[in-house]
Amino acid sequence: MSQSLQGKSALITGASSGIGRALAVSLDRQGCRLALTARSIERLEQVRASLSGKDVVLIPADLAVPSQVDAMTTRALDHFDGALDVFLANAGLYVKGDAAEGNPDAWDQAIAVNVNSVFRACRGVLPSMIERQRGDVIVTSSIAGHIAIPWEPVYSATKHAVQSFVHGVRRQVAKHNVRVGAVAPGMVLNELWGISDQDEIRARAERREGLLSEDVAEAVVFMLTRPPNVTIRDLVMLPQNQDL
Questions:
Q1: Phi then psi for 106, rounded to 5 degrees?
Q2: What is the SS3 assignment for 211?
């Protein structure tokens, strides 16, 4: 039997667009109380305006800056009186291209957001989950975390790092009834991949060339609503016409 998310508190990073925005909408429909993080407060306000829940706190933060990651987790925990039920580490940057021609500064930025902020934010939220003996952490990974993709080696490396972290931490905290998992989509038709035109998104989805952000959000809700005795450690999902 699935478990209800009604009334649970959730922190979502990268919540202003793409998968993060879809997660906010989906968890709002499930009755969750939400803390939403992204760099732009204006875009977060737009997301909040689309939600029906009344307990939504907006936390603007640049997750490439360690002090802002720490401030984000502290503020979310304070807002929910120290009781955070769900952490969705979703924020990420996409970098592609040949290593011999790439921009190392862009790589550092991607590593800061895709890897370091995930590690640091988990450090912030896990103690309260361990103390309460319950909680869920789901990290947005990628098929690139399972297969090193030649046109995006740095991005693949960041997602491989996330996968290793998820699997190690999961085994550390399982005894505290805290579940840790990763959702690993293939091509998602959203802004992270430079796709924002709604007609193009619909057409490419109909051709089965890409996933919708909402598809990924539905998968995460499935993971969160499994009975407490069930951990989905990895959920890999691909468009039907993408097979790697």
A1: -65, -35
A2: strand
Query: Is residue 30 a contact partner of residue 6, using CB atoms and an 8 Å limit?
Result: yes
Read off the tokens for 73: 């987790």
Is 155 among the catalytic positions? yes
Domain count, the chain: 1
CATH of the domain at 84: 3.40.50.720
Would you list the DSSP string of 171-210? HHHGGGTEEEEEEEES-B-SGGGT---HHHHHHHHHTT--
SS (H, E, C) 20-83: HHHHHHHHHHCCCEEEEEECCHHHHHHHHHCCCCCCEEEEECCCCCHHHHHHHHHHHHHHCCCC
Residues spanned by the domain of 221: 9-237
Does 242 map to a domain?
no
pTM for this entry: 0.95
Tell me which of 129, 155, 192, 212 is the catalytic residue: 155
d(CA 71, CA 93): 20
Residue 84 one-letter amino acid: L
Place of tokens 């450090």: 123
pLDDT tens, the chain, 244 aa long: 789 999 999 999 999 999 999 999 999 999 999 999 999 999 999 999 999 988 999 999 999 999 999 999 999 999 999 999 999 999 999 999 999 999 999 999 999 999 999 999 999 999 999 999 999 999 999 999 999 999 999 999 999 999 999 999 999 999 999 999 999 999 899 877 777 778 788 878 788 989 999 999 999 999 999 999 999 999 999 999 887 6
Q: With respect to residue 189, please indicate whether it lies within any of the assigned structural domains.
A: yes
